[in-house]
Amino acid sequence: MVGTTDQELLELIQNPFTKERGYRMLVETYQRRVYGIIRKMVIVHEDADDLTQNTFIKAFKNLDKFQGNSSLFTWLYRIATNESLNFLEKKKKRFFFSIEDHHQVMSTYLESSPDISGSEVEKKLQKSLLGLPEKQRLVFNLKYFEDMSYEEMSQVTDTSVGALKASYHHAVKKIEQDLTTE
């Protein structure tokens, strides 16, 4: 599996005799990274786990639509991002959460969940991130935690580089303000 290229994975998946192995290798190769970005967006492990699974199911069902204009990683991240944003939007509508209520519920979860580890500084950062609009939080996560270039982020989010730079700048300013006022 080590060193398997996107092209090799695609060939395995497209061959009826190696399809299952190819799909398994795709999941093994990208699952941890996809889960990480989803978890940073939705916070709750069980939700992130479900959305990660949904991401790979959707990818597998739509692999024939993958045009190769980007890497498989970028394509999967785009699916994961959309899954996360749609989930958060549905969750707010379903539970009639205001943004403040949702922020409070997730902050409490960060404090009390045994699944959340990290120093106090890391928890403060996560709480601060919860206060950002979803798109800004996504852009911050991709840039700060995933160290993606603006060009890569543009492919993942289907947003212009200029808009991404502005979102990241606003996110950083809000986080700085949040962390210095506590």
From TrEMBL:
Residues covered by the RNA polymerase sigma factor 70 region 4 type domain: 124-175
The entry's keywords: DNA-binding, Sigma factor, Transcription, Transcription regulation
PROSITE patterns from the UniProt entry: SIGMA70_ECF
Residues of the RNA polymerase sigma-70 region domain: 26-93
Pfam families cross-referenced by the UniProt entry: Sigma70_r2, Sigma70_r4_2
Gene Ontology BP annotations: DNA-templated transcription initiation
A Gene Ontology molecular function term of the record: DNA binding
Entries under NCBIfam families matching the protein: sigma70-ECF
Protein name from the UniProt record: RNA polymerase sigma factor
Origin species: Litoribacter ruber
